[in-house]
Sequence to fold (189 residues):
Amino acid sequence: MKKLICIHLSALLFRRRCAPAAATAPCLTRFADRCTDTDMDTEIYTFEDLLERDGQIFYRTSGNSMRPLIKTGRDLVIISRKNGRLEKYDVGFYRSGGKYILHRVLSVCDGHYITAGDNNNFKENVAEADMLGVMTGIKRSGKDVPLGALYRLYVRLWGGNYALRRVIQRPYRKLRSAAGRLYRKIRGK
Fold:
């Protein structure tokens, strides 16, 4: 029996539908209503349920907090169930305030982690109990993104260097904002 998986982003739930044998190969899509086979049985699982049962989920992110590494709509991340404590520079998957978040671990403390998105200028404390999994891979255009030497260099220079990131991002954001205002002013005339 083939399986069809859909993500319902508004409810942050996976819908797993068991399709008949003649169905197409498994697909992953952002909106559950795009999967319209009416002869399928539907069961709803949370991400926690799927990680516990399968040990791994494939997830298309929303938001821009992990840019430039992960871009919404382009990349598919592979998240595995966490086995023990995460390490510094791991990308943790956790639940906070009803949302699922994927951020880099900047510091490992007793009973909690300090995390931040690669594109964020603020840090968050995440309790050990809230941390659900760890990113173990990225797929871009159907191909695996190598997490080798270049990735480790990126992590050390950008993702792990919070002070350098703030120094670079602040003028970049001001310049980008000024360019946008100038563009709107020119276009408006």
Summary: Confidence is low (pLDDT under 50) at residues 1-39. The helical segments are 47-54, 149-159, 162-188.
